[in-house]
Amino acid sequence: MEGFTYNNIFEMKGIEYLAIVAFFAILIPFWIFLNKEVKTKKNAQKSLGTLTPDSLKIPHGLFFSRFHTWTHLERSGVAKVGLDDLLVHITGEVTFNRLLDSGDRIKKGDFLGEIVQNDKRLKVYSPISGKIMETNSVLIKNPELMNEDPYLKGWIYKIKPTSWVTDTQSYFLAEDASLWARQELTRFKDFLSESIVKYSPDPSSVVLQDGGELRDQPLSELSTEIWQDFQTEFMSKKVLCRRKSCFREPDKLKND
């Protein structure tokens, strides 16, 4: 029949289908990429959060020492020992080095080990006297547990105490521990204001978030010299608190 043109509708639709498939083939990877970028930014913002009293975990039932270690006596008569949440928030991701052996005996204030971040180190001191019964082998394989869960999975030692009541009578529990943590955070800010200015021309850009809040894990970005100051001026000084006031007193610790 003249003037009649035959078009295969299935061929035409096939081209349209191919175009749609090609469109989604380009769109889907791009969408995944954008979501990955958003997720990465959110994770970065979370990791660079602010360090405030409300961000600290202070479980009831644990004894917190001025060495920024905690201890908890179990029903078996063995006490767990670990780092407190404030210290791991201040330092950031660390590993625990120079572990003691089972059977070693230590006294309160003795060298317990050191936390390490690259070439930066801090000595940690024991909150109690006793005999080392066990080292947390899971922590050795997964050091990130010290930051993620310092009180349950991130404990360091189990120690059989020899003078539990005497060692812990001046430690902090429950609400007193929360108040002490707030005071220690204020003391840390004072430390930074005095120490960091010696080594950084613009200290605020290093440790402060927008709005002047202290950035989480501030020591992770600071120099070895500031870590050394932190050891001597913050970690190795005896700080006595009487409810709402604290004062410093030099602390004589044994050399490891």
Automatic annotation (TrEMBL):
InterPro entries the UniProt entry points to: GCV_H (IPR002930), GCV_H/Fam206 (IPR033753), Single_hybrid_motif (IPR011053)
GO biological process assignments: glycine decarboxylation via glycine cleavage system; protein lipoylation
CDD domains recorded: GCS_H
Gene Ontology cellular component annotations, sorted alphabetically: cytoplasm; glycine cleavage complex
Annotated TM spans: 15-34
Keyword Secreted: no
Pfam entry (one): GCV_H
Keywords annotated in UniProt: Lipoyl, Membrane, Transmembrane, Transmembrane helix
Protein name, UniProt field: Glycine cleavage system H protein
Origin species: Aquipluma nitroreducens
